[in-house]
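Acetyltransferase, GNAT family
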Amino acid sequence: MDDSKYVILKRLPSPQQYNDLRSVASLTPAPIEIVATGLANSWACFLVFERADMLNDTTPSPEQKPVGMGRLMGDGAMFLLLCDMAVHPDHQRRGLGKAMMQTLVDYCDEHAPHAYVSLVADPMGQGLYPKFGFEDVAPSLGMFRCERVRKVRQAQAAETGREGT
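Structure:
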């Protein structure tokens, strides 16, 4: 990451910024009415901003949107979940993901050195995370449960079934 062009700040995005960045980075946005609660319960969150648009070294301009983010959730001691790693496509391939990961790992090492830090890696991030010490959980198997996702999948299956008739 070119420090003359970008800055990483420890701060939360607005719910709209969060969903906008997730959407443009091909990640599923969450219902806006629950995003504020989720963000407020973050253990740590870092945003990447373009330095040229900043008011000063630590203050984005009022309408400035983050171009990257990474967030940690958890108890801050034993278990953390790295989530919401996203970089705007116009700013990818510039080292922002690596810089964000280094920031997150350094923060964990300083503030929760004994924590078990886990993540779920989408295909495009699977090459990045091992560079920062993350390993496959085999022979364990990662799983999730999300009622919202289950309902969407059921609706898609029903729609697909109708299209075939």
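The helical segments are 15-24, 32-40, 96-111, 147-163.
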